[in-house]
Amino acid sequence: MKKLYILLTFGLVLSFASCYKPSTWVDENVKESQGYYPVIQAVRVANLPASGKFAVGDVVKFEMKYWSVDPINKYDLYAKVAGVETLFSSTPYVYSFVPEIKAELILLDYTVPQGTAGTTITLKAIITNENGLTRTSGNVNVPVQ
Q1: Angle at CA 108, nearest 5°, toward 106 and 111?
Q2: What pTM was computed for the model?
Q3: Average confidence score pLDDT of the chain
Q4: Is the pLDDT of residue 54 over 80?
Q5: Alpha helix (H) ranges present in the chain?
Q6: Helix (H, G, I), strand (E, B) or coil at 94
Q7: Rounded average pLDDT over 28-55
Q8: Cβ contacts of 77-85, under 8 Å, gap ≥ 24
Q9: Pairing outcome for strands 84-92 and 134-136
Q10: What share of the chain is helix, strand, coil (3-state, %, to 5)?
Q11: Which burial class, exposed, middle or buried, applies to 41 when counting CB atoms under 10 A from its CB (0-12, 13-18, 19+)?
Q12: CA dist list (Å): 13 to 6, 19, 124
């Protein structure tokens, strides 16, 4: 009789555990009526000088690897200088799929402005799909000498 109670209790616990549905990556990144969010794999500065710092007037190549199920509309590059974030450029979509990495790779140019010597500029990008969904990249710090 005691074994029967143990088996029933164990079965009841298993039945409750089977009803639990954990959230998945898809649940958090897909909206049925709106489409799919873009996914940013990595961001970096592609042309970092040997000194590790850029000079005023230098062009910084902001590299972003990403993929998206839905078509991309544009890339917005933002720069934060002295605590003030501004839109530096808005670039329309350009097909840039690289089969070796199974993702798209885009280079966005940023010119280091006058008056920023001795500071660190923070760059980030926002990808916008044609359906209006966006994804913001991580920040990349650009030291200026």
Answers
A1: 160
A2: 0.77
A3: 90
A4: yes
A5: 2-18, 25-29
A6: coil
A7: 88
A8: 77/108, 77/110, 77/123, 77/124, 77/125, 78/123, 78/124, 78/125, 78/126, 79/110, 79/121, 79/122, 79/123, 80/121, 80/122, 80/123, 80/124, 81/113, 81/116, 81/119, 81/121, 82/116, 82/119, 85/122
A9: unpaired
A10: 15, 50, 35
A11: middle
A12: 11, 10, 48
Domains and CATH numbers, the chain: 35-143 (2.60.40.770)
Tokens linked to 43: 């961001």
pLDDT at 135 over 70: yes
Cβ–Cβ under 8 Å, residues 117 and 144: yes
Name residues whose C-beta falls within 8 Å of residue 71's C-beta, 6 or more positions apart in sequence. 93, 129, 130
Cα distances (Å, whole numbers) of residue 31 to 71, 127, 131: 15, 17, 11
